[in-house]
Amino acid sequence: MSPDDGKSSTTWTYLVAGQPVAAPKTRPGLHLVATPIGNLGDITLRALETLAGADIIFCEDTRITRRLTERYGLGADLAAYHEHNAEAVRPKILQRLSEGAAIALVSDAGTPLISDPGYKLVRAACEAGHAVTALPGPSAVLAALSVAALPTDRFFFEGFLPARQQARRTRLAELARIDATLVLFEAGSRVQETLADLAEAMAGRQAAICRELTKLHEEILRGPVAELAAQADGLETRGEFVLVIGPPPGDAEVMTDGAVDALLTDLLQRSSVKDAVMHAVELSRRPRREVYARALALAKDVPAKDGRAGADDGED
Prior knowledge:
This protein has 316 residues and is an alpha/beta fold. It has 2 domains: 12-138, 3-Layer(aba) Sandwich (Cobalt-precorrin-4 Transmethylase, domain 1); 141-245, Tetrapyrrole methylase, C-terminal domain (Methyltransferase, Cobalt-precorrin-4 Transmethylase, Domain 2, 2-Layer Sandwich), CATH 3.30.950.10. It is 36% helix and 20% strand. The protein is built from 11 helices and 12 strands. It has helices at 45-53, 62-71, 86-98, 118-127, 140-147, 165-175, 191-201, 225-230, 257-268, 273-284, 288-299, and strands spanning 12-16, 19-23, 29-33, 56-59, 77-80, 102-105, 132-135, 155-160, 181-187, 206-211, 219-224, 240-245. Strand 8 (155-160), helix 6 (165-175) and strand 9 form a beta-alpha-beta unit. It is elongated, with a radius of gyration of 24 Å. Mean pLDDT is 89; it is low at 1-9 and 306-312.
């Protein structure tokens, strides 16, 4: 903010070690500013300069972002932009951009657009011809990859898995086919269940549980995913979790019986026996006749949906 009221002067400042630092007015356009994922000291000088000179900062939760702005003496107005109000707020942001405003977009933590709704705003701003600038910085994805001690030459970011167990197991069966390190976000309330499902779907792989990255109680647990799942009952579940799972070993085994049954049970609720078998064979690498026999046995107990499951549909 300015030495006066933050708006009446052409001088803007932010605080470093408690001392004001002058910042120029931020250029018009949309600025995507990465913010700390836990430790407020991880903010970059460029981010502070941009936030100090912005006309307004749009964020997921103004209460969370205000901790950052107060820490560094930033005087820009704060406004909420999140998945629940995006459709209504987006046109207002675009209008301000058309009027020459300098707008910063931040997420609650880390890099904007990673597991938040910002991409639609970026797309709309680009289509309207507004300048869009990325200010890189903290990222829970990259921080977890850095400390997991797993291959980083290829990785796949999944974000949050489905909350329902059956859908989660189906998605994990699909992810198991990807020959790369996997990065997942998970809530503390579900991390133990997810670890159990991971052990079933990806037995034999190495993994890392990253909790509260960059914060005071940061904790990294590494080991075979089955061992981590077995120890999950004693896991501290408070905080933010990133799960990193290494790529499948060269001699990876086919999917276990339990994982095949879970996959088929989910597929049979949404498709015919024939389609479920085709998809399950591709994912499990199990013999087709074996998968078909298991599907027929399971279909008897799966409620029919539009006549799809629960009956033999003429497969050989």
